[in-house]
Amino acid sequence: QVQLVESGGGLVQAGGSLRLSCAASGRTFSSYAMGWFRQTPGKEREFVASINWSGGTTYYADSVKGRFTISRDNAKNTVYLQMNSLKPEDTAVYYCAADPSRYGSSVGGAYDSWGQGTQVTVSS
Q: Which of 39, 44, 85, 91 has the fewest CB atoms within 10 Å, i.e. the most exposed one?
């Protein structure tokens, strides 16, 4: 497992942008696929995006496709989520997670390490 710490959340107006970062500890970061999920109170955790171990393959939920971009820097042990054209419905706690399969998944159960989450609030 790896330890994950998210940052970059905050309050932004609709139409604005934020970039989330997730710093990982450990020397095996580059062997993990990484994902971003989000959750609002009373709702199930929702898949947002994933990226494979090399950064060459990415997947997005339909709700964020074209607006969010996931990327990684293996030299810095960090994965990013660039969020543009934010909408009030993007308001949630965002979590990054590590998947030891190297390929990425939209299923939360595939991930064995999770960060503590960072709050994103989009005002209308």
A: 44
